[in-house]
Amino acid sequence: MKIATWNVNSVRTRLEQVVGWLQDNPIDVLCLQETKVVDESFPRSAFTDLNYQVYAFGQKSYNGVALISRSPLSDVNVGFGAVLPESVVGDLDEQKRVITGVLDGVRVVNLYVPNGSSVGSDKYLYKLHWLKVLREYLEVLLQQSQNLLVCGDFNVALEDLDIHDPKGREKQVMATDAERAALRHVLDLGLSDVFRKFNQEGGQFSWWDYRTGAFRRNAGWRIDHHYATPDLYERSIACTIDTAPRKLTQPSDHTPVIVELSLS
DNA sequence: ATGGCGAGAGGATCTCGA
């Protein structure tokens, strides 16, 4: 089973590239983030024409996640509110950042973690709170299934190895100790970074700023991740970053990360 | 320290991303 995560920065603007990539890479589930479109306007037919199923959870202008799956998914649900009480979720589901479904006994959780804007800002505090609630959310999912693949745009670089230039990173959003601690607390539930099982090198990134020619300089960050529960982690046989879409004209600033699981 | 670039909404120039 192959699953990919890709922050496309508007699925409508990127539609031709996403469909083209899917034709070249016929994977089982494609997890999209930053679709930036309400569900009624999601370009479904572009995917259903390729015999993929579409499950979308979007909003106007911002955020938005979707699952594009070759086979129908079971038990699809959206938002933290699907499993957590309103007293915990509050208004967090107003931003569409969570969608999940099950394929062949694997629960795929597709996340778009808040960016956090700048350290100490309201959005930064929102991000830290969101990660706290994420832990509670995954804790409930783990009671239902021992096979979780949690992927998406985490907007956190866990190690200095995941940043092209970690100098001054403690003042930099996506790399502060508080963000790393919040994500590690989530992972302490028993989730492991599949990419690092196969690759311990630096210089391996999934996002490059549009500005200052960052991609040409490989001045990137590895912030798009696949995390797996122990059995799935054991069964993972590859995890790769495909930089090809980032080289196209008018690209997303992120590129796909693909995981392969051997479930036989 | 600041801005660089790009998308969406709306119809000039904002907000937001990371």
Automatic annotation (TrEMBL):
Q: Which residue positions does UniProt flag as site: Transition state stabilizer?
A: 155
Residue numbers marked as site, Important for catalytic activity: 224
Which residues does the Swiss-Prot or TrEMBL record annotate as the active site? 112, 153, 254
Q: How is the cofactor bound?
A: Probably binds two magnesium or manganese ions per subunit.
GO BP of this protein: DNA repair
Q: Report domain Endonuclease/exonuclease/phosphatase positions.
A: 4-254
Q: Name one Pfam family in it.
A: Exo_endo_phos
Q: Name one GO molecular function term.
A: double-stranded DNA 3'-5' DNA exonuclease activity
Q: Which InterPro entries match?
A: AP_endonuc_1, Endo/exonu/phosph_ase_sf, Endo/exonuclease/phosphatase, ExoIII-like
- Keywords carried by this UniProt record: Hydrolase, Magnesium, Manganese, Metal-binding
Cite the SUPFAM superfamilies for this sequence. Answer: DNase I-like
The prosthetic group or cofactor this protein requires is:
Mg(2+); Mn(2+)
**Which parts of the sequence bind Mg(2+)?**
7, 34, 153, 155, 253-254
Question: Where is the site described as Interaction with DNA substrate found in this chain?
Answer: 254
Similarity remark: Belongs to the DNA repair enzymes AP/ExoA family.
- For this entry, the protein name equals Exodeoxyribonuclease III
